[in-house]
Amino acid sequence: MKLTILGCYAATPRTFTNPSAQVLDINNHKFLIDCGEGTQVELRRNKVKFSRIQHIFISHLHGDHCFGLVGLISTFRLLNRDTDLHIYGPKGIKEIITLQLKLSNSWTNYLLIFHELDSKEPQLLYEDDKVTVETIPLKHRIYTNGFLFREKPGPRKLLINEISRYKIDVSLYNSVKQGKDVVSEDGKLIPNHWVTAPPDPPKSYAYCSDTVYDEGIIEQLKDVSVLYHESTFLEEHLELAFPTKHSTAKQAAAIAKGANAGRLILGHFSTRYGDLNLFKTEAETVYSNVALADDGKIFNL
Amino acid sequence: MKLTILGCYAATPRTFTNPSAQVLDINNHKFLIDCGEGTQVELRRNKVKFSRIQHIFISHLHGDHCFGLVGLISTFRLLNRDTDLHIYGPKGIKEIITLQLKLSNSWTNYLLIFHELDSKEPQLLYEDDKVTVETIPLKHRIYTNGFLFREKPGPRKLLINEISRYKIDVSLYNSVKQGKDVVSEDGKLIPNHWVTAPPDPPKSYAYCSDTVYDEGIIEQLKDVSVLYHESTFLEEHLELAFPTKHSTAKQAAAIAKGANAGRLILGHFSTRYGDLNLFKTEAETVYSNVALADDGKIFNL
């Protein structure tokens, strides 16, 4: 899994900061998560191939998370895209996009498939042989979801030395990787665990933005490998966090700790702060493995 | 008049080129003309004070001319704007904006006044004591208007030496500037033209983008001081210009020449071209006073 942060600031795009958008690479898929104004330019700047994006997940309909979507869809059209595009987002997103395409007489020449969300329970949105994506219902001023990406367990790993020692035919390797016992060329039954090691533990990534501090999400996030949790504010502005339904760095860390996350990435910073290291320091009072998002930063998870 | 080009490229925003947007300064008014994606960032980059923008003119509903509008409106709200904002644009623009404000539950705390256009005849959109703005109906793939800004004639200029020679009381200066004859302190009738010179000829600016080559607009543009005319293509791609309802540099120059424009600014360049000087060279085969728009370029008209 590789995570590219395109934008990690709250509210309004500025000359040197971008609103929310990020690309998660899993096994050749590029999942775009949120799409603030200017995301298509940040995709270019970060050399993300447009054609590789087939699934876009929009957390909620505040502008800093979705105003770049119609432009990206239009640019795909101008570039003669022909592969389908799936958009997952709150009910209403289809009307917003199609109204603009209709009034500009610029229908896409590729298939645009909307998956509108209104459930308050976690929902499985996407599944293939390698990965699942589910919603994380969040509490914000309007209907909002986070997204939880989970790799499926991979095949067992062949122990090359052992497998040649036991003379196992190459044609059987695939079933060995699936965990099956096999018979060697000289007729012996070889238990699978003699010639394989367990697969790497599957990784998972949770995107939680925007949300008020909500311990209700901890159970769903249990043992997540990497948690991106919004921290719009520092504790010194705690009195702003609750009414605007945002979190502080310390609160984000408390969620990471409660969920036993492997790592916490903080983002969605209010543009009022000059020194973002204060977010890291504050979060580290509660939980140790903290990183700061930054526009253009890549995390190899 | 001062014209700041925020973006002058066609179709899709890129790392180093912006879609259509420009600010025309006339007598302390800042008129924003078109608002492609990223315009709010370009306004910041060019240090245009947001609060001074009270009138936004949208030529048509193709994304490269309007996808930045909802973000700008939202940012005005976040900055606690309290002055009215007037938006002039094609019918449908109100629905596009209000749908997004409604679904994000982010109504503006200032007054947003839409002036929706559907006339195919020139219309007076705005008038104050210094300036008028009227539409220039254009021919494009969808309903489109250019905009013609005209200064009103200013007051006559006082000839300071003459006015003191004839001993005219300071309290009369305003009526002298209005062209009235006056009586001097020693009782003589002084004809106005003895103590004043005519005002500077009023300037005018026409924005014509996007449009196919259309001689029908020449009469309305007659003697315009500065004409910004789209030139998406060079003549070598003339076969693309007509079906997409765009113009070439040479065609833009023919309009400038026909209208006896004081100056031609070319813009709305297709991003397929590496060397924009080819546009200038091509236009200069027809008309001599040609300039190229460029993102961030300022023209003192």
From TrEMBL, chains A, B:
<keyword id="KW-0819">tRNA processing</keyword>
<feature type="active site" description="Proton acceptor">
    <location>
        <position position="64"/>
    </location>
</feature>
<dbReference type="InterPro" id="IPR013471">
    <property type="entry name" value="RNase_Z/BN"/>
</dbReference>
<keyword id="KW-0479">Metal-binding</keyword>
<feature type="binding site">
    <location>
        <position position="140"/>
    </location>
    <ligand>
        <name>Zn(2+) 1</name>
    </ligand>
</feature>
<feature type="binding site">
    <location>
        <position position="64"/>
    </location>
    <ligand>
        <name>Zn(2+) 2</name>
    </ligand>
</feature>
<feature type="binding site">
    <location>
        <position position="60"/>
    </location>
    <ligand>
        <name>Zn(2+) 1</name>
    </ligand>
</feature>
<keyword id="KW-0255">Endonuclease</keyword>
<feature type="binding site">
    <location>
        <position position="62"/>
    </location>
    <ligand>
        <name>Zn(2+) 1</name>
    </ligand>
</feature>
<dbReference type="GO" id="GO:0008270">
    <property type="term" value="F:zinc ion binding"/>
</dbReference>
<feature type="domain" description="Metallo-beta-lactamase">
    <location>
        <begin position="17"/>
        <end position="193"/>
    </location>
</feature>
<keyword id="KW-0378">Hydrolase</keyword>
<comment type="subunit">
    <text>Homodimer.</text>
</comment>
<comment type="similarity">
    <text>Belongs to the RNase Z family.</text>
</comment>
<feature type="binding site">
    <location>
        <position position="210"/>
    </location>
    <ligand>
        <name>Zn(2+) 1</name>
    </ligand>
</feature>
<dbReference type="GO" id="GO:0042781">
    <property type="term" value="F:3'-tRNA processing endoribonuclease activity"/>
</dbReference>
<keyword id="KW-0862">Zinc</keyword>
<dbReference type="Pfam" id="PF23023">
    <property type="entry name" value="Anti-Pycsar_Apyc1"/>
</dbReference>
<feature type="binding site">
    <location>
        <position position="268"/>
    </location>
    <ligand>
        <name>Zn(2+) 2</name>
    </ligand>
</feature>
<protein>
    <recommendedName>
        <fullName>Ribonuclease Z</fullName>
        <ecNumber>3.1.26.11</ecNumber>
    </recommendedName>
</protein>
<dbReference type="InterPro" id="IPR036866">
    <property type="entry name" value="RibonucZ/Hydroxyglut_hydro"/>
</dbReference>
<comment type="function">
    <text>Zinc phosphodiesterase, which displays some tRNA 3'-processing endonuclease activity. Probably involved in tRNA maturation, by removing a 3'-trailer from precursor tRNA.</text>
</comment>
<feature type="binding site">
    <location>
        <position position="210"/>
    </location>
    <ligand>
        <name>Zn(2+) 2</name>
    </ligand>
</feature>
<feature type="binding site">
    <location>
        <position position="65"/>
    </location>
    <ligand>
        <name>Zn(2+) 2</name>
    </ligand>
</feature>
<dbReference type="InterPro" id="IPR001279">
    <property type="entry name" value="Metallo-B-lactamas"/>
</dbReference>
<keyword id="KW-0540">Nuclease</keyword>
